[in-house]
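Data deposition worksheet. Section B asks for the primary sequence of the deposited chain exactly as it was used as input, without tags or linkers unless they were present during the calculation. Section C holds the resulting structure in token form. Section D is free text for depositor observations; keep each observation to a single sentence. Incomplete worksheets are returned to the depositor.
Section A, Depositor: J.P.
Section B:
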Amino acid sequence: MTAGYYDPISSPQIELDRQSHISRPSPPLQQSSGFSQSSAASTPYIGSDPSQPFIHKTEHSNRQSTIIPHKAGSRKQFWNILLKGLARWVLTVALCGAYLFAIGVWSLKGTVTEPSKRIFNALTTGISIALGLNIATALKDYAMIARWPIMNNRKRNLNELDLTLKADSLTAMAKLAFISGRPMVFIAAIAWLVFNIATQVAVAGVSLTYGFDTSTESYLFSSGTVKVPDMTFFYSQGNSSQPDPEMEQYTAQVLGSRGWQSAEGSPIRGMPRARAVFPRTQNWSSSEYWNIWEDQPNKSMTYVFPEFSAPTRNDSTILGVYTDRTISIHYSCNSHKVISNGNGSDYDNPVVQDIGEVYMEDFSTYATTYITNNTNPCAASGQDRCFVVQAFEASDTDPWYYLCNITMGATINDPHNVSFISDRMARTAVGAIAQMGFSWDLQQTTYYPNKTQLGAPLHGNATNMGRKIAAYGLSTISGAATFNPTITYSGMEPHTGFKLTIGHHYLFVLSLFLIPIVQCAMCFIIAFWANRVYIHDDAYLSMSLLLRPIADDLYSVSKNHENSAFRSAKKRMMVRYDLGQDGRWGFARSGH
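Section C:
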């Protein structure tokens, strides 16, 4: 049989047999080189009774044979292809936007509950599935469009044609890669398979860039039992009974010395807000336990009281948070030059400029001595929460004397008095730098060598001396809050929650932006490439008419049996999707 085209749509007067038995028509005996055929070369009618009605009247058949929805290379077909692709692209953009919106909302929520976590997981899982399905469907659409210019590219046997027509099936593409025998077909088919898989991996991989972790930045709160430090006394470590005044003073000095070395005088603007996480660790020298916040312009320092969750039988984890309960200490110092006996080696008291001789029970050379008198001058003025602390900075060349008023305020934002500091405890705290706790005289002194931080000479800087004494005094309070026994009260108990964390920000954003960008680019590439041929309708009836000439040729070989002749014909017959001489598109056949 010679090579040629067959166009069943242009064949006139196809009749329908009304009889119950319909015979399979024989294949055409002769075909022209174009799609249009003469009546003599037409496929034999199905039935020969002239009285049988035609499927279409001649005028209908002729009209339908000339109507083509979109011509190859037409602007109308181009926009039809492009708009169909962009419709899928718009849905992809919407889903990516929904993904970003969900991530943004839950990131701003901070710590969330388990139900909120489940809602997020359900929402993002649904978006991810919808996005994957939409992209997979879009790729199938692209494949179904791209098969027409591919089939126009060259002749191929019927086995390849069959698989190419099923371009939306990845299984068919895998088979095509191995049966074609041509390297370019193999590479293209494998590349398409890899690209399809890669897109699904990319969509699924987006969910691997984020996840929920136990929140360490904030907690959830509910009514419950809360633990707070017992601030009634400066308890010695391991002792919860009321201490003696001497022991309490000694404990305060130990706590102040330990806390002063660990504390950081952070700016007051960095003071934590209420319910911020208190970073409880097992390292008692950690600055978080002792930290104080300084307001240097107002010559004050502030400590924020923490509180903790009460451990239960099922959960021994203790969670700590800062509260809005704070206590502050204020300082005011004057410095005076020592004009005589300032090296600390003489037995005579130092003589201070503008003051005169200052009595000191004890002092030392190359050291700074801190002094408090048991007859507190503050009490005479009705200030029960302050102490006057003196400091003698001995030196052979530059001795100084300091006179400081250190005052501790009351705890604020404490309606239940759970962090109440008594006047007695406040006085003990502000004078702790000088009080050893055991003295038989009316004065207590403590000296620190000038090679230490507390004894380092300040050369008359009264502000820094006030900061040093105030920080020491406030560190006794932070130390007591750390080591004192605890009490409980009914408050808002902290609980752990979940925090959405994005482990790979760049990968997450890059994925959600690249997916629609690549899809949009493919829309235009496919539209430009495919528009050079006529994109045939995918409807079953339309496809059956297009493939009928091939089916007739195969029928003539095997009589509707899949035998060796049938399989041989599929390998031998070569077809190409091409434009016929009458301007219509169909399959040109040869080699059968």
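Section D:
The two ends are 6 Å apart (CA to CA).
The longest helix spans residues 114-153.
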